[in-house]
Amino acid sequence: MNLILSFDHTPGPWFVKESVVTQQLMIRGEGGNVCGVYLTSKGERMPQQGNARLIAAAPELLEACKQALDALKHEDTIEVDLLRAAIGKAEGQP
Q1: Residue 17: strand, helix, or coil
Q2: More exposed terminus of the chain, fewer Cβ within 10 Å: N or C?
């Protein structure tokens, strides 16, 4: 059984800041830390930096998806379905 909770997210923009002390890439927003991506080894540094950048871009990506869906709302295409699914996932809809 999946429990879906709906909460607002920390307002963007988000950005990545490296913490040398905790060996994490911290994703921060207006309200403080959003999450951290651990740097466990030098070999994993590049994928983890990419993951942190993707997480930090989430608020802007969600807004871009919403605007694109609004512009294409009368279209019946796979791209519109993909936009609806991505927005739903980001907003905690099953």
Answers
A1: strand
A2: N
Listing from the earlier edge strand, what are the strands of the sheet with 32-38?
15-19, 24-29, 32-38
> Rounded distance, CA 58 to CA 66, Å?
12
CA distance 78 to 39: 37
Task: In whole angstroms, give the CA distance from residue 55 to residue 37.
Answer: 10
3-class secondary structure, 32:
strand
Element (DSSP H or E) covering residue 55: helix 45-56
Place of tokens 């990419």: 50
